[in-house]
Amino acid sequence: MVKAAVTGAAGRMGARIISVIGDTEGIELVGAIEHSEHYALGQDAGEVAGVGKLGIEISSDVDAVVKKADVLIDFTFPDVTIENLAVVSKHKKSAVIGSTGFSGAEMEEVKKIASNISCIIAPNMSIGVNLMLKLVAEAARTLGDDFDIEMVETHHKLKKDAPSGTAMKLAEVAADAVGRNLSEVGVFERFGMTGARGKKEIGVQTLRGGDVVGDHTVYFYGTGERLEITHRATSRDTFATGAVKGALWISGKAPGLYDMQDVLGLK
């Protein structure tokens, strides 16, 4: 039985992860974490998540919670995630990271810590999105420079980072497939007299509004035709289910940085 702890336990994602853990064989919740000033501290994690009393209080003591778990599932923010990973490393546990918005320096810190532990990090835990990554790479390789690559992502109005981590990963995968460096060819804003589109450009545009869970579309524009690859998430359970699948998979794995492509056998 894999023993899991969940950060952001009173949040939207944390609550869904706790619910999915309760419905999944082979894994159990042993700890729930929130920040030190959160209103839900001391409350039962199951009751806060809407799944009934579990006998597990929400705590801000990351060290104590991680110590009794096998794997930490973390959907927070980059700086918080790095602090939590340091605790995971201290206790030689495993981690599943769904946080997004990491800077280059922060990702280097994550990689450094992950050299000591087994850790999954993925901007999107959805099975469908991870299959989409593979399809986008294959389409980009096949269509090559004859097709223009653009993408649009939409999320709810409360999302803090833009573009989404998923959109950035899709853009990176497409760029790699056609031998380009996204940092050189990525276009994240167009306004005014921009001139003709550059042949090597990869456009990534962001929309925010309402309660959209997450929509991503990658467009391949050719002459006289276009290909669209779209994924729409209608429930956070798709991410929670992937995270729990990852937690089951990562337990006992050798130290290193993995992603959902590894979990799903898509590499």
Roughly what is the average pLDDT, rounded to an integer? 95
Class of the largest domain, according to the CATH hierarchy? Alpha Beta
User: What shape does the CA trace take?
Assistant: elongated
For CATH, the homologous superfamily of the largest domain is named as NAD(P)-binding Rossmann-like Domain
Termini distance?
27 Å
Put simply, the count of helices is 10
Radius of gyration over alpha carbons?
19 Å
Main sheet properties? 7 strands, parallel
Poorly predicted regions: none
Structural class: alpha/beta
Indicate the proportion of strand residues: 15-25%
The helix-strand sequence is: EHEHEHEHEHEHEHHEEEEHEH
- The residue fraction in helices comes out at 25-40%
Overall CATH architecture of the largest domain: 3-Layer(aba) Sandwich
Q: Count all strands and give the number.
A: 12
User: In the CATH scheme, what's the topology name of the largest domain?
Assistant: Rossmann fold
Total separate domains: 2
